[in-house]
Amino acid sequence: GSSWDKCDFEANLCKALPEFSLHPGWIRRNGQSGMGPPYSDYNGNESAYFLSLSSEMQSSSTVLRTNVFLPTDEEHICQIAFHYWVSQMSGTLMVGLQKHSEDTVTNIWQVSGELRNQWNVNTITINSTEKYEV
């Protein structure tokens, strides 16, 4: 059977992301925080929470790293669906895969430039024979 976890940031950072802290620059906020767009989440809810990069981070890069996922097999591929917003100011949003036997992060998806200032949704599929992080 398929199992899935929904992460909406309403109460915390969700199971997929390590609880100890947000990496520098990431903040958990909603559309009413007075920080500028987006003013609602992808459902149009102004009080719903999402993660956002603080404006001080415009010129540098920062990372959100998941907890460790177990290997996938033929019956259990991993699909990660996520909503994202790219503003006029931001650079590139990338999804990377790090397998535990490798030191490097492999870029498996990225977006920059198009569809700015609106919520978009994407699903990535991961097949890995070993433990990995995203």
UniProtKB/TrEMBL annotation:
Domain MAM per the UniProt entry, residue ranges: 5-134
GO CC annotations, alphabetized: membrane
Stored InterPro entries: ConA-like_dom_sf, MAM_dom
Transmembrane segments: none
Coiled-coil intervals: none
One Pfam match: MAM
PROSITE patterns attached to this UniProt entry: MAM_2
Protein name: MALR1 protein
Organism: Machaerirhynchus nigripectus
